[in-house]
Amino acid sequence: MTVTKNLKPTGLAALAAGAMLALAACSPAAPDVAASSSAGTSSPTPGPSSVTASASPTASPGTSATVGKIVAGFPESLIPVMPGATVISSSLDKAKQPATAALVASITAPTAAVVDFYTKHLEGQGFKAVPGDAVGAVASKDFVRNDNETVNIAVVEAAGVSTFTIGANAAVESAK
Q: Which of 40-48's residues contact partners 24+ apart within 8 Å by CB, and which partners?
């Protein structure tokens, strides 16, 4: 049983919409890109699924995103998947400087454990925590390195499941 089955459909839809907005905010706009859906034309299939976004003719080379797994080339040394977490989506844009990477995942662990895991990992890589631990009611922590590399982690906990989003803008050589 995956952790995402414990989330209500509306919560999962809101999370997915938030992840897509975060990805859109970090990626250049691509005109002439149309989205299509076959949600109403196929029957559900059992088991985990994964969808990888294919590049459109106007997409930047080096930009990719996927659902349900880590996208190829994702900088797992910069942003590792917390042990026990289930990946919801990931993205990577190495077409510009700084490179942008994002991870959305969930885990049956308290918010504090997620923030602590990533704080220790990022500080071990030379990132420094910026003062502040929340935006409104959402746990949110920012980190900076070399004045031009940033990482943000935001965590929402519901029914014993912490869903977290990590976004990073880092030097291309760090995003390997």
A: 48/2
